[in-house]
């Protein structure tokens, strides 16, 4: 299992069920050095799943005082690929370390 940090629509039960076929398990965690902005979603499938036209997107600030709260979910390698399919082209997946000291994947702006 690997960790996937969600700070937006991947926390929604409907999105999890439609993307992964199950509800994800995880715990709250904090990502430091990032801020959030919003990106307009135009992909019809993502709009249908999330029911949201604007999704949050992470942007590196480099300021340790900046924090983004979210959920650190445990997912399989296959589920990471399913998350990649869900996220639109504005996002890229990278690895990060969280306030808890755990490592996991995040989606940031390209």
TrEMBL record:
Alphabetical list of SUPFAM superfamilies matching this protein: Gamma-glutamyl cyclotransferase-like
Entries under Pfam families matching the protein: GGACT (PF06094)
Domain of life, per lineage: Bacteria
Residue stretches making up the Gamma-glutamylcyclotransferase AIG2-like domain: 4-98
Gene3D superfamilies: Gamma-glutamyl cyclotransferase-like
Signal peptide: none
Protein known as: Gamma-glutamylcyclotransferase
Organism of origin: Chryseobacterium endalhagicum
Lineage, opening ranks: Bacteria, Pseudomonadati, Bacteroidota, Flavobacteriia, Flavobacteriales
């Amino acid at each position: 299992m690997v960790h996937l940090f969600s700070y937006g629509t991947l926390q929604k039960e409907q999105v999890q069920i439609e993307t992964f076929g199950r509800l994800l398990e995880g715990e709250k965690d904090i990502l430091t050095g990032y801020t959030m902005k919003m990106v307009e979603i135009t992909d019809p499938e993502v709009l249908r799943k999330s029911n949201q036209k604007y999704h949050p997107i992470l942007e590196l600030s480099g300021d340790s005082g900046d924090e983004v709260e979210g959920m650190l979910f445990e997912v399989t390698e296959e589920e990471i690929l399913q998350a990649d399919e869900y996220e639109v082209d504005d996002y890229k997946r990278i690895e990060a370390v969280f306030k808890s000291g755990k490592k996991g994947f995040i989606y940031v702006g390209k």
